[in-house]
Amino acid sequence: MTRIVTVGAAQLGPIARNETRSQAVRRMVDLMRQAKAKSCDVVVFPELALTTFFPRWFMSDQAEVDAYFEREMPGPETRPLFEAAVDLGIGFYLGYAELVEEGERTRRFNTSIIVDKAGKIVGKYRKIHLPGHHEHEPWRAFQHLEKRYFEPGDLGFGVWRAFGGIVGMALCNDRRWPETYRVLGLKGVELMMLGYNTPLHYPPVPEHDHLQAFHNHIVMQAGAYQNGTWIVAVAKAGREEGCDLLGQSCIIAPTGEIVAMCSTIGDELIVADCDLDRCKEIKDNVFRFDYYRQPEHYRLIVETKGVVPCP
Amino acid sequence: MTRIVTVGAAQLGPIARNETRSQAVRRMVDLMRQAKAKSCDVVVFPELALTTFFPRWFMSDQAEVDAYFEREMPGPETRPLFEAAVDLGIGFYLGYAELVEEGERTRRFNTSIIVDKAGKIVGKYRKIHLPGHHEHEPWRAFQHLEKRYFEPGDLGFGVWRAFGGIVGMALCNDRRWPETYRVLGLKGVELMMLGYNTPLHYPPVPEHDHLQAFHNHIVMQAGAYQNGTWIVAVAKAGREEGCDLLGQSCIIAPTGEIVAMCSTIGDELIVADCDLDRCKEIKDNVFRFDYYRQPEHYRLIVETKGVVPCP
Amino acid sequence: MTRIVTVGAAQLGPIARNETRSQAVRRMVDLMRQAKAKSCDVVVFPELALTTFFPRWFMSDQAEVDAYFEREMPGPETRPLFEAAVDLGIGFYLGYAELVEEGERTRRFNTSIIVDKAGKIVGKYRKIHLPGHHEHEPWRAFQHLEKRYFEPGDLGFGVWRAFGGIVGMALCNDRRWPETYRVLGLKGVELMMLGYNTPLHYPPVPEHDHLQAFHNHIVMQAGAYQNGTWIVAVAKAGREEGCDLLGQSCIIAPTGEIVAMCSTIGDELIVADCDLDRCKEIKDNVFRFDYYRQPEHYRLIVETKGVVPCP
Amino acid sequence: MTRIVTVGAAQLGPIARNETRSQAVRRMVDLMRQAKAKSCDVVVFPELALTTFFPRWFMSDQAEVDAYFEREMPGPETRPLFEAAVDLGIGFYLGYAELVEEGERTRRFNTSIIVDKAGKIVGKYRKIHLPGHHEHEPWRAFQHLEKRYFEPGDLGFGVWRAFGGIVGMALCNDRRWPETYRVLGLKGVELMMLGYNTPLHYPPVPEHDHLQAFHNHIVMQAGAYQNGTWIVAVAKAGREEGCDLLGQSCIIAPTGEIVAMCSTIGDELIVADCDLDRCKEIKDNVFRFDYYRQPEHYRLIVETKGVVPCP
């Protein structure tokens, strides 16, 4: 058995508000075909890859919000992705807005799935670290209402055996939090997939706008190195409905080195051979957890949510 | 009250095996004088700053090992540092090997202290993440026997009110572990001081040697950003007893940007004005812990030391 | 004689259109005082440091343009800088718009000067690489009319003996052109000073906006390394009249390493000890010009201005 | 006609002194097959790719030196590369030591060629910037006798129409010199290929050893950006006969961004789609030569080889 997974990071350019899921899916299937020509085993798509990034608008009509959500996966419009997986023999990671009815209760998550080469869903993740805000804040150039439109994920940070290794998922803002990587690392993750939608402009602290690209990479490079895992991180990029979204989708080695990066802000496929056995270079040495970690001193990480006042 | 702390990172070049503590202290006092001319409030010295990095040798005679340890702080040879603090009105951080007798028991730690402008010790830290190995491994070009010569620290990751802010400490390998920063971050740290001795050559994985400088910075830059803290990280650098030690001592802003860095591998002072109020740019926004963290999903971080096997 | 020059990079935040030169000068004198407390020998101010960056507006009235120009240096409003130099014993580099009458002809340059600790102008440079455009281009979010308001510099790239070494100057867009560094390098430059005003937004290719910070540093780091020179590069930064200007003013070692960097976008002083003797680490070795250069193969650099069509 | 060239950077791990050219060629053909599976149009191999890096030894016997040189290209041992090009429909760049007899005179060059998909040599380059030294210097850990074993190239920096664009070449140390990129840039280069052998240890200034990886990238990233060209740079890497060679082979976009990088120090193929039309993003804007360059001020670049003393 080979432990090399050829991964494609399939960045998407902007999706306009009036574009249909089918249009987006056609672009994704085209990227899957490109990936086939590069011998990919799996392709990673962005977060909320089927529509425009709708949390940028305040919508008082819940039906208008819900129109951006999927009630089944696959559904009629997303089925071509699953068919392409089977036809081409390529798995994929996909981010989308998920609506589930649980008895009386309607629940909404920012979700991603991993689909294998047989077109079967092998894992699901619901975003845990929801960024943005709950209420309409008209002073912002645009809204970021993930905290309003989604619940925090309830499935934890899972890993799955897929593509010959141990695969984990995360979404966008999760990548800023070292806990994300560490929990997955403690589960032995070898290949982490995540999609993102990251505006270049951060309204609360615009004086950091020029650091968006730097921040995007530094957290993931540290996370990859500190846990000895490959990371594939994929953007929806470009000027979408007047909002500039960061590109620079990338594939990161367990050493923290970026081994492939998109340099456009449109639809773009980049590819790297990820040798999962190379995770051991890190996991068995500088970050050998069972030899070096001292969890008795980490308790505050779970015992408090916010800062504990200094006496 | 001003919240700007002018910090000096006082890198040391090599200390030969036959150099005395007094020689090292003279170099440090000279750096403190340079710091005075730059209006510093506090100076950060390296880990184990008083002697050569003795864990690089296997010594079977415990008395030979113990000769590198301090039994009192200050003692006769280190007192000039405390006197200089008072004379110059400059605090300091110092790393040293600490030997304490507790009844029948002799304990040894890799320790650092913060001393204020009045020459008073305001905080002590004992290194928690001891790197290296326990046994003599003659296949290595040099040993790294911290696990043999020290116990893991027993004081946790503390913070103290000093220099007008909340100050924390760590030592060398601690900086690679995101838990270090996060525990301090949850205690509100605004200024983190740490010393290090980092060989360029890592015997278990020499194919990563060219990444030492990259790894040194990336973990600290991510840690600073993810917790909104200033970090001052100071090396003992240069070719010490045939072993090349990384320099690139640096001062990092809460944005993760390196704002000052040493570019020699000898004794060198760099200085930056650290505005502790700027921590809020991060702490109150992108990393507002109480709004965004989800500790119920982090439990594995404290419930396991090593990797949990994937089913 | 010591060859260490303690340099301050004195970044300015925005200057509003209605602010006077005297207001700007007061801020600069305050930065010089801060520099004194850090034992600086010389302070570097930005390009066009006395007023708002006026080439961002199309003005059809030449008198309105000329109001931004200096006809004497020092003049009544700039004299306090020269007096502060003498009082504090600190030299400075200053960028400003220079208007000279040569007989019938009025000439306008984007100029910088070096002033020594005695308040004497020891060198003048007129910007050679004028960026931007000649004509009003209303499609842009803002204009960049340096090519309209200035002539290209007519003084070449000069060096001067000052502060114990060989000092050269450049301005803003000059730093993007390797020829700038090379001509100065061939004149033995050891310390290069330059000011800049760099909008984060580049209207012709907005898809590169997120790369402004990267581009700013990479050209200067390469230039420093390839010529073995210290570089001090200083921005006017922040949101000036609705236009975001890059900060990240920095001091770069002859190794290409950034040894100090501003992390705000306001008035900020950073300091580094620049040991001019360290230039030899590069100049006498990897970039020993007389041993390695092959000028007979470089002729195209001077024989053509634009691209020569490929047959 | 499409302007996307799919490029493979085919890094080689070490080649022992006793390995034959045929062994190296087999490894290269294997990399070409991998490249085929990734739809590559062209593959770039390292400098002196057929043998160990022989300039690291002083050899007094010229016949021993000459054994490392090629007298014909292709010859019996290198023909499989040309046959693979035809079979697979993939062009390649190859570096090798070239020996030519010109009448009485034997000339030796450090050479590279571009071979098209039909197996035809379309361009040849002879290394202009020879690094290292002429004489045996036994104090070094290893020699670097390129200046002894080769003449400087006599063909200038050429470009050729190939793979749908304008392609140029350089070799190893050439990449440190901005003149290399600029001459090629003035000839309109869109895709620059270069191979290198770069020891991690630089005997004259060992205190810079930890900067080798940084220096390798920074010069090429600046060169790509300043000339708006793709660069494919490929190492012979790893521990070769006791000498550690830098890897980090990479593909760089005209923006200066690294879009693919090797993360091992062995045989490794990385791939990127290089859209040659994207060069215009840079060439027609920030580095529009005919609009911005001022060659009258660059004359020193060709008028002197070494530094001109400052008065």
Features:
homotetramer, 311 residues, alpha/beta, 6-stranded mixed sheet, 9 helices, 14 strands, globular
Descriptive notes:
Four copies of one chain form a homotetramer. By secondary structure, chain A is of the alpha/beta class. In chain A, 23% of the residues lie in helices and 27% in strands. Chain A is built from nine helices and 14 strands. The first copy, chain A, has helices spanning 21-36, 62-66, 79-88, 146-149, 178-186, 212-227, 279-283, 289-292, 300-303, and strands spanning 4-11, 42-44, 91-102, 105-115, 121-126, 159-162, 165-171, 191-196, 230-235, 238-240, 243-245, 250-252, 258-261, 268-275. A six-stranded mixed beta sheet of chain A has the order 5-4-3-2-1-14. A six-stranded mixed beta sheet of chain A has the order 6-7-8-9-12-13, covered by helices on one side. In chain A, helix 1 (21-36) packs parallel to helix 3 and helix 5 (178-186) packs parallel to helix 6. Chain A starts with a strand and ends in an 8-residue tail after the last helix. The mean pLDDT of chain A is 97. Chains in contact: A-B, A-C, A-D, B-C, B-D, C-D. Chains A and B meet through helix 5, helix 6, helix 8 and helix 9 of A and helix 5, helix 6, helix 8 and helix 9 of B.
Topology overview:
Four copies of one chain form a homotetramer.
Chain A: E1 4-11, H1 21-36, E2 42-44, H2 62-66, H3 79-88, E3 91-102, E4 105-115, E5 121-126, H4 146-149, E6 159-162, E7 165-171, H5 178-186, E8 191-196, H6 212-227, E9 230-235, E10 238-240, E11 243-245, E12 250-252, E13 258-261, E14 268-275, H7 279-283, H8 289-292, H9 300-303
Parallel strand pairs in A: 1-2, 2-3, 7-8, 8-9
Antiparallel strand pairs in A: 1-14, 3-4, 4-5, 6-7, 9-12, 10-11, 12-13
Helix pairs in contact in A: 1-3, 5-6
